[in-house]
Each structure stands twice: as C-alpha cells, then as structure tokens.
Design the sequence.
C-alpha cells in the first residue's frame, strides 16, 4: 500500500537573510485535504517558511515539492540546484493561493475587481465569465452584496474574506494563510475563521500560520510547532496539546491564554 | 496713481495672445514633464544600476540649479554646442526637462510607497512583472502622488514667467512690455499677479476635484 502523496513536501529547507540563517533544515510534509496549523513563538520562522512555500522568498537551499512538482528549483543529479524556467515556476505556483495578514487588497479595484483581476489579466477570461466566477467566489465567503464596494468601504473582516475569495478564484489546490486574523478586531475574527473552517470541511488543503490557539486546536488536523527555525513538534492536536506536553510548547501556550490556550492548559 | 482700465481693454487682444502662449507652454510642459518624468522614474526603479546612477545625477543637477540659469544656458549656451532653438521651442524644452526632473522624483517616491504586500498579492495570483506595473503599481502610485503633481503643476505655471527673459511671447513678456510702453507698470504687474493667481487657483480646484473622485480608492 502506498500512502497518498503529500500536497507539499519540504526537504532540508534552509533560509538565510544575509549572514543570519532563520530556517535550519526544515523537513515537513503537508497532508492533502487537511488543515495544518503552524504555530510557534514570534521570530521562529513561521512567516518565512510560508513565504518560501508561496515562492515569495527563495530558500537558500533545500527543495519544496508542490503536488509532486519542484517549486522554483530542481535538484540535479550532482545535488546542485537549478532554477526552473519562469513558466514552470508560474505553473506550480498557480496551484497555491495566499492570504496575508494585511489583506493586501488592491485599493483601486472593487471587491469583484480584486477577485476577477487574475482571471482577466492572467487567464484571459472575458469580463462576463470572470464576473460570474468572481461572484460565485464572493458568494462562497458571504459577500455577494458587497461586490461593487471598494476595499476602503469594507470592514477588516470583509476585506479579509474578499482576499480569500481572490485566492479561491484561481481554484488553487492549496491555500496558505499568514495570521489571517491578526490585524482584525476581536469581534471580526469569527467571520474569517468560519470561512476558513468551511473551506477545511470542503477538503481544501490549508496551511495556516496562526496565534489563534483555539482555532488551531479545533480546526487544525495537524499542528506544527516551530521553534528557532526548526520543526520542534509535529502531530495531531490531541496528541500535541495533551499532557505530558513538551516544555517549550507549554511555555508558548502560557503566553497565549487569551487566544484559546487557557482551555488547553486547564488541568483535566 | 490710478488704475487705468481703458489701457487694459485696449490691449486685450495682445494680452489674450500672451495668455494663450502661457497656457500652451504650461500644459505642454506639464504633459511632457509627466511623461518623461515617469519614464525616468521607471528606469531608475526597474532599470539597470549604471543607467539609474546617470539619471540620478541628471535629476540632481536639474533640481540643484535655478531654472533661470538652465534656460539661459539652453538658449544662449546651446548654439555653442549646436543646439540652436527659437524661443518657444527652447522654452518648452527647458521647462519640460526641468519639470521631468521633479516629476521623476515624485513618481520614484510613489513607486516605493506602494505597499510591498500589494505587489506580492499580485505575484501570488500569477501577474507578470509588466502586468503588475500596469495594473497595480501605476494606478496605486497615481493616487498617492496626485497632490504632489498638482503642487508641481502650480510651480510650473509660475515658472513660465521666467521664459520672458528669452523673449518667449507669453503673458509676462507681453504684459510687462505693454506696461512700459503705456507707463502702466503697476497696472501690468497687478494684472499679471491676478492672472497667475487665477491659474493657480483653477489648477488647485481641478486637483481637488480629481482627488475627491479618487478618494474612495484610498488605502484602507
Ligand atoms: N526580510 C528579512 N530580512 C532580515 N531578516 C528577516 C526578514 N524577514 C524575517 N527576518 C528574520 O527571520 C526570523 C523569522 O522571522 P519570521 O517573520 O519568519 O517569524 P515569525 O515566526 O513569522 O514571527 P511572528 O510571529 O512575529 O510573525 C526573525 O528573526 C526575523 O527577524
Ligand atoms: Mg510572521
């Protein structure tokens, strides 16, 4: 019996900024159809790892396979890396969507314009067809009625949902989230987390960097705990969060009591 | 001293002709300055290093010297290096290049001010470099730099007065000449001040109207 190929396979990934190495040989497989939550202290390298997967950063060494295809670089027989042609890079990247902490909607386009931009500009769809597909995605995040609004006319939670719809419009196999609720008012985080929860239920492969420990523990099927640029722990939440816990994780959870970690630390 | 309106009325055709030259040179220099300034900013932002350095030097020199000296050099010094231009083309060229230097700085700052994340979001959905410039950077930058562009347009309309010294028949040259012929210095200067002020006000008004129309595109 062969195990299903992982959606993302990361091998010995290192990333340096100048002289400083911030990721020290990450080995990690992201299961298909599951929600993986990346947690860890500030500066542990969560964003850097996610940005490497989105190819917004180029890893210094190591490889990333996305749906079995090498991302950006290919390891040659002699062990050296070769940069792949731009077309190959784009093709592999098109299977990945990204949602940012700061939403990063384009302010000069409406919600629908943001969602359809790549459909028209990159995929060459007609405005009508792109509009229909864009509306379907906005409906999915509950924002059909806000299609003609500009980002400045939307609340933070609505903006983030538009950003999710924008990523979904290209029908990616994998969605990456970097602290999608971190710049939202507490009362707005729920609507975004609910959309993400629904996506998870629909079987989307998601990698979520989050400080929402409650969300990670309930929606995450897999928790990866990063510490000082290394994967320290990797497992299902029930295993990871249950005592006996790794002391670093306990220490980390104690700083996030208000984000749902209190529940996990409560003595049974 | 009394303000003699009759003098002004009698000279109206000449005044209007001068005004037309002022307006024409101003708008043409504005358009050329914006176009050239944008090209310089784009080359400095995206082009190869040595070219960027050369352009930077040119911009520094143009911004670091008075326009009066530049236009003198172009008009009176030009013939020594084979650039022989009539007053109007010389004035237009000089003013456009001068404006381009300032506009290029405005646009360069604009390119830098577009949040990196907006570009990254575009990369993530597969836009190419050229598409990102066209669809994201330029429109976003336009909104950011609009107030400074209006400001530059205002400065430029006033700089056209300097072209009178190379005998460009624009408003200042025409009206001050009339003033000395008719012994109406004060009237002519007053009229000139009024004309430039009205142009500046109109420009500011147009700029604000445009900004209002674009305000809903502002950064959230
Ligand atoms: N562009 C950069 N240049 C230099 N150093 C960087 C850069 N980006 C990140 N770093 C460094 O890399 C390390 C990991 O940063 P990263 O942003 O990945 O952490 P993080 O786990 O996402 O933290 P946080 O929870 O605060 O978002 C940090 O020490 C950071 O200072
Ligand atoms: Mg981060």
Sequence:
């Amino acid at each position: 019996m062969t195990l299903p190929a992982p959606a993302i396979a990361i091998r010995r990934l290192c990333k340096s900024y100048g002289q400083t190495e911030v990721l020290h040989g990450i080995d990690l497989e992201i299961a298909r159809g599951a929600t993986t939550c990346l947690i860890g202290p500030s500066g542990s390298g969560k964003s850097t790892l996610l940005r490497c997967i989105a190819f917004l950063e180029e890893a210094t060494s190591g490889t990333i396979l996305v749906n079995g295809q090498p991302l950006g670089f290919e390891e040659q027989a002699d062990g050296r890396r070769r940069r792949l042609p731009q077309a190959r890079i784009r093709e592999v990247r098109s299977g990945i969507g990204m949602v940012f902490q700061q939403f990063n909607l384009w302010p000069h386009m409406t919600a629908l314009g943001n969602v359809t931009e790549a459909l028209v500009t990159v995929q060459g769809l007609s405005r009508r067809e792109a509009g229909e597909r864009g509306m379907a995605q906005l409906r999915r995040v509950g924002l059909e009625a806000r299609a003609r609004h500009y980002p400045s006319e939307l609340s933070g939670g609505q903006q983030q949902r538009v950003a999710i719809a924008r990523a979904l419009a290209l029908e990616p196999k994998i969605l990456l989230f970097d602290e999608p609720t971190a710049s939202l008012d507490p009362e707005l985080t729920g609507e975004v987390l609910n959309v993400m929860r629904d996506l998870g239920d629909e079987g989307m492969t998601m990698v979520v960097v989050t400080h929402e420990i409650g969300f990670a523990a309930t929606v995450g099927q897999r928790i990866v705990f990063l510490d000082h640029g290394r994967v320290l722990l990797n497992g299902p939440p029930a295993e990871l969060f249950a005592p006996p816990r790794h002391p670093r994780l306990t220490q980390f959870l104690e700083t996030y009591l208000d984000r749902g970690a209190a529940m996990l630390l409560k003595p049974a | 001293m009394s303000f003699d309106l009759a003098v002004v009325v009698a000279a109206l055709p000449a005044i209007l002709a001068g005004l037309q030259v002022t307006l024409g040179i101003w708008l043409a220099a504005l358009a050329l300055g914006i176009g050239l300034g944008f090209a310089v900013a784009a080359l400095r932002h995206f082009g190869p290093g040595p070219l960027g350095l050369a352009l930077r030097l040119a911009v520094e020199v143009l911004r670091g010297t008075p326009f009066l000296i530049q236009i003198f050099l172009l008009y009176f010094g030009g013939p020594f290096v084979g650039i022989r231009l009539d007053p109007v083309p010389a004035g237009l060229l000089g003013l456009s290049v001068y404006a381009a230097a300032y506009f290029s700085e405005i646009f360069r700052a604009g390119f830098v001010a577009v949040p990196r994340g907006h570009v990254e979001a575009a990369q993530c959905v597969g836009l190419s470099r050229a598409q990102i410039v066209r669809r994201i950077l330029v429109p976003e930058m336009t909104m950011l730099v609009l107030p400074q562009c209006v400001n530059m347009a205002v400065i430029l309309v006033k700089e056209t007065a300097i072209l009178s010294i190379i005998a460009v028949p624009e408003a200042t040259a025409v009206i001050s000449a009339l003033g000395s012929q008719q012994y109406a210095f004060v009237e002519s200067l007053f009229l000139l001040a009024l004309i430039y002020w009205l142009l500046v006000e109109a420009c500011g008004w147009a700029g604000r109207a445009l900004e209002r129309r674009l305000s809903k595109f502002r950064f959230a």
Summary: Chain B has a mean pLDDT of 88. Residues A 46-47 surround magnesium ion (ligand 2) (CB under 6 Å). Chain B touches chain A through 23 residues (CB under 8 Å).
